[in-house]
User: Fold these one by one.
Assistant:
Number 1:
Amino acid sequence: MNATILCVGTELLFGQIVNTNAAWLSQKLQILGINVLYHYTVGDNPGRMRETLIRALRETDLVITSGGLGPTQDDLTKEIIAEVMDDELVLDERALAEIETVFSRAGRRMTDNNRKQAYLPKSGTTIYNDVGTAPAFALEKDGKIVIALPGPPRELQHLFETQVLPMLAARSGSVIRYRMLRFYGVGESDLETRLEPLIDGQTDPTIATYAKEGECTVRIASKRPTPEEAETALDETENRIKEIVGKYLYSDQDQDLAEVVLNELIAKGLTISSAESCTGGLFADSLISYAGASTVFNRGFITYTNASKEEMLGVPAETLDRFGAVSEETAVAMAQGTLKCAGTDIAVSVTGIAGPDGGSAEKPVGLAWIAVVTASGELRTKKHYFRDRGRNWNRKTFVLEMLHQVYCMLETISC
Amino acid sequence: MNATILCVGTELLFGQIVNTNAAWLSQKLQILGINVLYHYTVGDNPGRMRETLIRALRETDLVITSGGLGPTQDDLTKEIIAEVMDDELVLDERALAEIETVFSRAGRRMTDNNRKQAYLPKSGTTIYNDVGTAPAFALEKDGKIVIALPGPPRELQHLFETQVLPMLAARSGSVIRYRMLRFYGVGESDLETRLEPLIDGQTDPTIATYAKEGECTVRIASKRPTPEEAETALDETENRIKEIVGKYLYSDQDQDLAEVVLNELIAKGLTISSAESCTGGLFADSLISYAGASTVFNRGFITYTNASKEEMLGVPAETLDRFGAVSEETAVAMAQGTLKCAGTDIAVSVTGIAGPDGGSAEKPVGLAWIAVVTASGELRTKKHYFRDRGRNWNRKTFVLEMLHQVYCMLETISC
């Protein structure tokens, strides 16, 4: 099956917002084995919307629209789809009741415009919206399907995951299950090469790799007659992947490294503190951005100057003089000083050269030393170096490496 | 003039990358007074690329393409454009020489594929690429223009700003100048209402407003016969805007609040330190993400627990007990403790409720207290409250408010 993604909204054509829905939907349709041939964006203009929809339906079997389902006069997506598909809009009582509930709960007055949102194509299947006021729908005619979703990414993603994905899978008498496996410490091309024997000739589950700053994700997806068969197929494939590259896997639930580390700390009842130089608080932020952090993150030191390393953490001046601020010795002294001040179970430190200045042949931009110490006397250090790709890219990779060293310490595995 | 933006690349249709070029180009074309009617994305497929280009040229006068100018067999944008516009590709000697220089400088071997990049439409105008290997070009025929740009955003943006923008402006015998004015402390709709008398009936310079997390940007653009006239027109409009909402303006050079604060600190030779609770290092990060931070940012304290506020900053237990961790008194004690420990000219603190838990009727999620103190004894505090829009949105607004309080202290203006 071939598909077009048709995004509607003048704010997209003005460049006021970046279209993230097209990429998101494309990834999900790929899981279903549906080829996306076109992304189109048009403004809130009935003529151009009509022509573009007609073209999309001629060229592909499935058209997914986003946007234009709101209560205002500009929102014409439903009207145009009904017209092009030779259908009509009728009141959906359940949709109306749901919109009324949203308004009465919020203590807001409902207008006739909002009532308009409950009018939906007569021959369509309503996709009731439990996270917003705009109901979505699917409409099929002569072997062509249009699925209209609301524009806000949170609503679009939720409705797609919970209702559209199962609906599309069911058309082929199948269910779809997929998992995102997250890896650290292995490059994308290396990962692909190692998994090649598995990827080649494998039709279900499908395996796809994605790269992100210093990280890789492998998506495995299975389309089978029953959920049990799909899950079993995923288990088997996941196990085969683990046999090959399992030592780099840190999450099979699409979680960030920070979230995984935080959950491990919570599960083990351990507290942590940090000392950062060039990362300037980004490590602490990576944990504190999750609500559960308050039970495990105790305090952080941002020691950006040599004086602050000495005064806040008791790093000896001799250590800084003899080995330099960016050295294994300084990283260890920073972590030990942090542990002592904070009294936590674990302390982690980083000292590095983020650039653009400050690098040398011996200590280039992109180099960092990381140390992790525990109250029970364990110590691990890591010399981290990635090719310099700019100050903030470097800083993010330093934080990932800190998280990974803490993760390794928690797992007591060698990395 | 009406335009289509046509992005080429299978990686876009797979959802592996989000298309930021379409929004970026749309904003810039709007400055030129060009209406963008469509965004299209197609894969590296000659048939669909050809059909889509033909349609775009029928529907609009200007087509800007991005992507498909690389050295591989997949890269077919030039070939398709030449075919559709009835032109032919010929060797551009200067383009070839430039590509050869890039390779010889990098010590890399040049292949025949790279040589292919120097073949360009015979009747076109080459847009030489000083930041990459793919030359771009403009080709005009029968009143229709195609401009082909490389896909990597850094190259596309640079070539557009330096060559395409002047080229398109010159077609109307004009030059284009524009400025981005950045505001803090005023909402977008409020700003629009206040500027309405200026916006209404104003044809040049044009005025457009944009909203971002807790901030607003106003773009003013002028298209005039000479650069001097355009700059004079911008000066006049900027002055009129300043008369109305000048007290909220913090940059007329499209700089972040963090960058503005950092540059002010550097210019005044002042040092700063920080104490953060729920923002967890984000304030320090906002400054340290800029390379110049090392001369002004001394150290930061992430005091996420009450104990750490007492031990690291000497906040009295009585203050915490009596007024609570989120209070003016605690914020002041944190800032004063930071100033004392760090010995900087300025210290700033924040203590707030980021959510989702921890709020109450009296102290709701989204509330923060901020304090700024100086070595010369000045003190300012601010109770910040925005409606809760999620933990990390709240945390970002807290950081913006911290930056703004420091900015106000530096300007010694009242906000």
Number 2:
Amino acid sequence: MLFSNITILNENLEIEKNKYVKVSGDRITYIGDVKPEDGYSREYDGRGKLLMSGFFNGHGHSPMSLMRGYGENMALQDWLFKKIFPFEDQLDSSAVYWGTMLAMAESLRYGIVSTSDMYYFCDDMARAVIESGAKANISRSITNPMGSPLSELASLNEMKEFYEGFHNAAGGRIKVDMSLHAEYTSNPETAMALADYARSLDDTIMHIHVSETKSEHEECIARHGLTPAAYLEKMGLFDVPAIAAHCVYSDDDDLEIFKSRGVTVATNPVSNMKLASGICNVQKIIDMGINLAIGTDSVASNNSLDFMEEMKVMTIGCKAHTGDPTAVTPKDALRAATFGGAKAQGRAESGSVKEGNKADLIVIDISQPNMHPVHNLINNMVYSCSGKDVVLTMVDGKVLYDNGEYTTIDIEKTIFEAQRSTEKILERL
Amino acid sequence: MLFSNITILNENLEIEKNKYVKVSGDRITYIGDVKPEDGYSREYDGRGKLLMSGFFNGHGHSPMSLMRGYGENMALQDWLFKKIFPFEDQLDSSAVYWGTMLAMAESLRYGIVSTSDMYYFCDDMARAVIESGAKANISRSITNPMGSPLSELASLNEMKEFYEGFHNAAGGRIKVDMSLHAEYTSNPETAMALADYARSLDDTIMHIHVSETKSEHEECIARHGLTPAAYLEKMGLFDVPAIAAHCVYSDDDDLEIFKSRGVTVATNPVSNMKLASGICNVQKIIDMGINLAIGTDSVASNNSLDFMEEMKVMTIGCKAHTGDPTAVTPKDALRAATFGGAKAQGRAESGSVKEGNKADLIVIDISQPNMHPVHNLINNMVYSCSGKDVVLTMVDGKVLYDNGEYTTIDIEKTIFEAQRSTEKILERL
């Protein structure tokens, strides 16, 4: 495939105009000013369009798309105990499959090519992701709220089986990460056992909820005399590459831990604001040189997978929080949304429009009124662009979404089955 | 025109399915379960669609669309004095016309049917709004930073001429409001002269920036021993119906003034966050029964006119600010975006899907993945809908935007001329 006369956001996050970009197999094989003579079966007219890396979602729970708009405007504990947990208790393999497929459809519509996805029924999640053509780092979230003996934790074995069965499946589109759900939903024995297992693997990533709420952060200190970050480091969970999701209340010492251990912070600006958890000072994270990724969290607390919105809310939220209008530039947001997320997922060959990289790309319509005039296209990309200005999404060189059409997902069936799965669960409640 | 088999958001902000809604002339003439036999030339297939009131933008500066993305990530004073004011000094009649037309195109795309629009070159603004088919309450913003004698203030005469020439023009689509820019950009004599003039008119609305930033609020107290709201009331500016824009730092006594004087608060959540001004506690405003409208402010500080985004950011911003996830419900947001804004603009026959009302309506595509499953469509409307899910915008019964096409605006010419006007100004700087 050849993108002709297209504007690109290059690997240095600069705008270049009137470029030709060729994709062969799953790679970007040419970027230049001269039109290649042949070697492509489709030529895409790039006038009025921008080509950039797809978005890498640093923290999600795809199957929870079934809970979109379910139980809104409730206090956190009521929402969890009266709505979310009872619904989750009724989930089954089919519901998780269709919830994940719906999330993949929405993700591809909004330009998300890969998601760090933490949940359970992971085989069903992987099946949906593989069929959709998207990528995901899927982790079986380990909880052990009662501190049960490890021998009684089926989830640990599930996780190991899932790793053995699916890690690097579908040509590497699926990666299996490890996940301790959080400090407050487990105990030290569980944390250390998981760290042991992760260290025994050549190649995995640890994905954990960290300091999402003030009470979680403070109760950890009361329990262990350590912040969540310090506790998790002590348990050995940062001995492998890791994603710390949220980090709204992480303090300066915590950030030093992330920095020294190479932990990525995945911030979830919309979800954190909507659940009234707070606002993460991402400027500080950027200033310290910590890798930053952006997550949507689940649709149950977002309630969409609109990554343009996520970038904008991250920047304006941090400006409001710090009182500093210069905080978090559009480039910072674009870097986190693409390269930062890809790096966090161990996908070093993705996240940039660069020759030799994987062709995980999106096309944005920049011809519309909301994108004009153009003083600076980078500013418009983050502050003025609509999520629905994404008009094409490509993963590993395959077009998965193109101007209203999905090539791999039966969208009518997906919406129908997701709705039906939801209704069946509600009937049982 | 007949909307058939359509879901509606009715005047009580409840969802009703499979309705028929007939528009004759500029009015909604029928809402019911039975299909009318005749009296329409176009039948609109409403399956998978929702019909609701258009959005009423409570605070904007349309011509500033020319400054989209111009001078970002700067401290407020630098941004104003190095970028915005020098650019504004170069504006002319043609630039204002095309900037306004661009804003109208974007507004209609995002479902905004009417804007409370404060700026200057008001004749050119009115000309663009009239041609676009949209509605606006336009006010000539009065400033008098040096405290010049009133006889030297050309803006006061301009404003009077504009009122006489344009109030209720285009069948009432144009209304002329009064505007004192703000306390900090004028002096008491100017404020009182404007209040005198406003009281002399049968029918006008006062539109003022109030307590947008902490320093503005505090400096007013230092100058006058009164908050901006108390000062403006004392000057007589709330003797006519009024819109107080921003009110981020308005205190409890200020809110009592708004309540007792029937002043509308127009909150501008995206702009306030992006400029790091702060977050307005709109829940308190709602609790006190003050009329609430939502504004976009200008595209120079937003940087879009996406009203779905504005509603979502208002709700989640207030939840984060108050620490209360139950703050500001989706219904609160929908009410402010429609009925609250229409009421603020003195457009009592708009803002609801109701028989006899003006047909200022929008259609939303609710068939897409981001709107499923449906536990509660009202929740999805505010938290999950994309601005670009608006597929039709109608003002006074005329379709102005329909599935990618404008019926009144030459969109290519508008974008071209807006860009050219911008470049001509930049050349002169």
Number 3:
Amino acid sequence: MGRASKREEIAEAAFRQFHAKGFNATGINEITKAAGVPKGSFYNHFSSKEESALEALGRYRDSLRFEMLSSQDRPPLERLRAHFEFLGEDLLRNGFARGCLVGNLGAEVADHSEVIRAAAKRGFDGWAARLREVLTEAQEAGDLDASIDVESTALFILSAWEGTLIAARIDKSAAPMDAFFRTVFGGVLR
Amino acid sequence: MGRASKREEIAEAAFRQFHAKGFNATGINEITKAAGVPKGSFYNHFSSKEESALEALGRYRDSLRFEMLSSQDRPPLERLRAHFEFLGEDLLRNGFARGCLVGNLGAEVADHSEVIRAAAKRGFDGWAARLREVLTEAQEAGDLDASIDVESTALFILSAWEGTLIAARIDKSAAPMDAFFRTVFGGVLR
């Protein structure tokens, strides 16, 4: 296995381990074991576990299919719903486990690692900006009350989604997701 | 220090450590050190770190002043707002750190510890039931649209609050909390 593919194997294994087990429960040993590479090779590619977590956040972001939000194939609020339905399917496929890597690392290590907190903040800021764009489009199309503050509402919907994933993992049921769709699309975005 | 007070010191130190650092980053060593007791004494009082986390969840719940929700001194929706403002002050006092112990343990260990997941679920279920009661009172008083599904809405508000705390810790700002109050009290509960 060449250097480039080894790095890829390690980065992908780190992403999967952090998503499944969290930051502190994941050891570098387990990452290299899952990647099928010698333990020492981790430090040929990453300076620290923290650095591999930053790359994991990037990989997670790339899995979120944000292009669904901006494609012009459907009305804005339908795209917004499809976006969260797509993310929700992931939770169902994982048996109500894992949730959102950004929220998970935020809850577990944002208070203790400034670099991870800053990366999570960039992730949330970019995500909220994309949600805001969809809400703005919906207002322009006349599908959303013009009096709604799109910046505050985008931020709120993102927070609500993050909490919904945690509640669904704790409840091991789709009830919190059902409540999210009902209240956001039947109430907040009337 | 007698047995009873030693147990109290250990339980309180465990609560504070879990709240500040999370489950996996907290060692029994650190709990006993913070409690000022010999390391071995932990197991005289708790069978495992998990068991001390269950007690920590109970201590956290007792700090939430749920009686604010049921006292009849103010209209129901004012009590609901005061409840979340009280919880939000805690985050501000801690410099946007710590957040909610139930959500934190849920995000970090619900996928891996069935006993902690079950305890977190009991915590959320009880909390959602209290929120639901306040919403029902508000409907009965004519302060809340009778068409709102109070069960689903209570669950949603709790999820949204949990995500709001994580977003505020990641953002190290009150913006997510401002968005919560604006959308919940200016939108969801119109």
